[in-house]
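Course assignment 3, question 2. Fill in each field.
Student: A.L.
Task: Predict the tertiary structure for the chain below.
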Amino acid sequence: MAETIFSKIIAGEIPSHKVYEDDQVLAFLDIGPLSKGHTLVIPKEPAETLDQLSDESAEAIGRVLPRIARGVMKATGATEYNVLQNNGSRAHQAVMHVHFHIIPKEGDGTGLGIGWKPQSLDNEEAAELAARIAREL
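Answer field:
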């Protein structure tokens, strides 16, 4: 995996405003926040996308993500938030290292804005797709 700003932060080469760290996970404030308290949670394991992450690192993130979200909410006073995770440049991933955004949604409209364009789900196609996905697991 190519070196990224996140790998440099993990190595201590670039400063960050850390909010949490253990052997497998690092969390710090985003330098371009969408709202006060916008926090990034990253695995220390170098993986570009979520599907490339080891089960151990995924478990470590899953264990601390709710705790960090609670801390962000208490510290900012926000009561609502988004957790965002993108995979690949076409999916809007800007840093090619797995990361989760915790983005408080403020009453002033700051936070994440989403355009959601739902499509219809054909029952027959859905059954076949669900079966294909299940076989791949």
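Instructor remarks: The chain has a mean pLDDT of 94. The chain has one domain: 5-136.
Grade: pending
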